[in-house]
Design brief:
Layout: E1 9-17, E2 20-31, E3 34-41, E4 44-48, E5 50-54, E6 57-61, E7 67-74, E8 77-84, E9 92-99, E10 118-124, E11 132-140, E12 145-152, E13 155-156, E14 160-165, E15 168-174, E16 179-187, E17 190-197, E18 201-209, E19 235-236, E20 242-243, E21 254-260, H1 265-281, E22 286-294, H2 299-312, E23 319-323, H3 327-330, E24 342-346, E25 352-357, H4 366-384
Parallel strand pairs: 21-22, 22-23
Antiparallel strand pairs: 1-2, 1-9, 2-3, 3-4, 5-6, 6-7, 7-8, 8-9, 10-11, 10-18, 11-12, 12-13, 12-14, 14-15, 15-16, 16-17, 17-18, 19-20, 21-24, 24-25
Length: 386
């Protein structure tokens, strides 16, 4: 029986990174002795219901991801660690939480001296070999609150929330896999700052207003090698049974191959989108195979992780297991997998028609709506072909 009483309501937590605190808020409820945590990032709500209490401590297992929060409770304070088991090093981050606080970064913001609303052409690690382009999309709310994200060629940074105070911009997100912190200064139509990813990565970024900037065509990044027009593989499903797109049940069907991983936040967004799509279109001849490229080579552990994903998003299409380290060998007909997820569209004759890198998830707003329009247009075209 649970003996520890934990105060319910709103909590403000901070992950203590080497270069600053990464804040997030969560609500805690108690239903007949069962605690539920709801983590907040902008409009996102992440339900954490795998929570146990032992002694004076609370243990919260994050949904799908191989990560957890362990904190000792002392009245209106909690202290402990966030542990990401999918990382081999620098995977433990100290965390503390205070009850009753709801602000993100700045409790009493200064009147903004600059505006951040709109689209920004962004360069991460500018002028270096690691340089990459992105689009910052931000929306200013009341009281200096900012919501937004960065779109990249391989996905998006999901729901970012923070504050603009004077000429300073602060953004963060935490979902059990993404541990992202942004600190920047705004000068007119330019932004300059630093991006921190957990304990293991940091880089500078610069941005300028540019409503017309576009990223590379996501259909152009990964292609089939010359002379090849089909995909072939045989991989074990969650029961160890081999699955191949050459199997009889996929003949004369439109098949989507979802290249993903249980560790990938954008892949989870895509899974949440594809699961109801499959249920709706299966009777019309649509099939989906999710290829989960896991970080572990332990098949049993991989099955456990992917099974949690399957249950979380009510996925009824087959999921098969592969190793992320051997992705190129698993699908040697591809030039290169540029990012996860990558989505491959196969027509009724078994030929690859399109390969799409990344996924513009719900945090991207209008980009997400555009993605859905293009997706359903393509699916309808393929299904209507003879």
């Amino acid at each position: 029986m649970k003996s520890l009483l934990i105060i319910t309501g709103i909590w403000r937590a901070v992950l203590m990174l080497p270069d600053g605190e990464l804040p997030f808020t969560f609500g805690l409820t108690d239903s007949s002795g069962h605690y539920t945590m709801i983590i907040r990032n902008g409009d996102e709500r992440i339900e954490v219901d795998e929570i146990t209490v032992q002694g004076d401590s609370i243990f919260a297992r994050l949904p799908v991801f191989d990560s957890e929060i362990r904190m000792a409770v002392n009245g209106n304070m909690m202290t402990g660690n966030f542990i990401n088991h999918s990382r081999k090093e620098k995977n433990v981050i100290p965390v503390k939480a205070v009850h009753g606080e709801e602000y993100r970064f700045v409790k009493d913001t200064e009147v903004p001296s600059s505006k951040v609303q709109g689209r920004w052409e962004t360069d991460f690690s500018p002028g270096t070999a690691d340089s990459s382009k992105a689009i910052g999309v931000f929306e200013e709310k009341a009281n200096g609150i900012v919501h937004g994200t960065f779109l990249t060629a391989s996905g998006d940074y999901r729901y970012l929330e923070g504050n603009i105070s004077g000429d300073s911009l602060f953004l963060s997100t935490f979902n059990g896999a993404f541990v992202y912190l942004f600190k920047a200064k705004i000068t007119g139509d330019s932004i300059k700052g630093m991006y921190y990813s957990g304990m293991h990565w940091k880089e500078p970024f610069v941005a300028k207003r540019n409503e017309n900037f576009r990223l590379p065509d996501p259909y152009s990044l990964t292609t089939l090698k010359k002379g090849i027009d089909r995909i072939s593989f045989s991989l074990p499903d969650l029961n160890g049974k081999p699955v191949s797109p050459d199997d009889e049940n996929f003949k004369n069907k439109v098949v989507i191959l979802q290249l993903m991983g249980s560790w990938c936040s954008n892949c989870l967004d895509e899974s949440a989108f594809l699961a109801p799509v499959y249920d709706k279109y299966k009777e019309r001849g649509l099939e989906i195979i999710g290829i989960s490229f896991e970080k572990t080579t332990d098949f049993s552990k991989a099955v456990s992780l992917v099974s949690r994903l399957k249950a979380k998003y009510h996925i009824s299409y087959p999921l098969v297991i592969a190793s992320r380290d051997s992705a190129a060998a698993t699908l040697p007909m591809l030039t290169k997998i540029m990012g996860y997820p990558t989505t491959i569209y196969i027509d009724k004759k078994g030929k690859v028609r399109k390969i799409y890198t990344g996924f513009s998830g719900p945090a991207t707003g209008v980009e997400y709506e555009k993605y859905k329009e293009d997706f359903f247009r393509l699916i309808e075209t393929l299904l209507n072909e003879l």
